[in-house]
Amino acid sequence: MSDIPWALPVTIALLAALLVAGVVAIVVRARRRSPRAAAAAVDARSAAEAALLRLDDAATELDAAFEAADALGDDGPTDLRRSRAAVLRGRDRGFTEVAALAVSSRLPAQRRTDGLRLRDDLERRVAAAGDTRDRLTAWTRAHGSVTERVAAARARRAEIARTSGDPARLVAESRARFDDTEWADADRADREARAALARADTALDAADAVIDDPEATDARVLEASLELRRAARLLRAVEDAHRAVLQASENAEAEVSAARSEIVAALELAGARPTGVAPDATDRLRTAEEELHAAAEGLPLRPRAAIETVARAREVRDDAIGDALTARRRLEAARAALPGTLACARAAVAAAEAFAGAPPIEERLRLDAARRELAAARAAHEAVQALSSARAAWRAVDGR
């Protein structure tokens, strides 16, 4: 009994300490989940995105600077080429890391910490790109001559013109056979490619005018190299668009016919098993059926548009009644839908790459996600997974 007066205050003190600790934990947890913490996490992610934007620009310019310095071949310094490769890998990894921040399920305070840590890491990669650029400049000054670098740039310009063939002829062929919407991208790419080549010529002429000033000359050669890269992308886009519309014209009629039959079968299934499909399945399938009818009427003038309509109709079908299909039927549907969807995704990604000038970081992140999904679709061994990745790639750059 003599211990009770001593034990009671201790017990009360322990309970009070536990209560205080619990209150503190609740307060800390609330603060870490508060709107202010969420806003701080968004700010940290924005800071990481801004750092990634600078890294992407620095890596792109560094890569072009290596080309302008004619340092990409075996004659280039090994340590510099390794540094360049490290910068490019760091840039590619940065896109994956920043994209992961946007879908992170961690607490806001943890996301803020992750964002700030990534921002600092990306800034270090930007500094590494700048250091590599400075070392490349020093190497360039000590090797070769500005006259040789100008000549090499002109040789690259001539090679691009030689290998591109006659893009204007490809556009003219498409214009003669198809609706305006089918060759608009090719026409735009052709015009912008010619403009880029003209800017490259202007830069090289300016380099010749200041040939006695190595720093000014190399700056103009770098400017020309960036324009030549853009022209090469655009000229490839002309060929890709021309090839796509020709392939579409060969397959569109059969694809539209097959898709219309598939939608009819899907409507029958939705009517027979209304509880096994989406609540609005019938309405959505009817809309898809009408769009396929319009696509059929647009042939043969709009084959690419028809292939896109088919791909979207099949996606609507899968979403509306997919759960009602057997595994075998889903696999067969995926195999039928994959070629057209993959073609649409490739075309959309190619157009986004060709026409990308200096887009904001949001567009660059979407394009990078589309590239990764497209690569996953090509590498997938199973049709359902490949189709899912192809659709994700298409959505990433198509704004759907």
Characterize the structure shown.
- It is a single chain.
- This protein has 400 residues and is mainly α.
- It has three domains: 34-142, no CATH class; 146-241; 242-398, no CATH class.
- Helices cover 86% and strands 0% of the residues.
- The chain has helices at 4-33, 35-68, 78-102, 108-142, 146-163, 167-177, 180-209, 214-272, 281-298, 303-321, 327-355, 361-379, 383-398.
- Helix 2 (35-68) packs parallel to helix 4, helix 2 crosses helix 8 (214-272) and helix 10 packs across helix 11 (327-355).
- The model has no long low-confidence stretch (mean pLDDT 91).
Fold blueprint:
Blueprint: H1 4-33, H2 35-68, H3 78-102, H4 108-142, H5 146-163, H6 167-177, H7 180-209, H8 214-272, H9 281-298, H10 303-321, H11 327-355, H12 361-379, H13 383-398
Terminal residue distance: 77 Å
- Report low-confidence residues grouped into runs of 5 or more: none
Beta strand count: 0
| Mean pLDDT reading | 91
Q: Strand-and-helix sequence, N→C?
A: HHHHHHHHHHHHH
What's this, in brief?
The chain is mostly helical and 400 residues long. It is 86% helix and 0% strand. The termini are far apart.
Q: Notable features of this structure?
A:
mainly alpha; flat; 400 residues
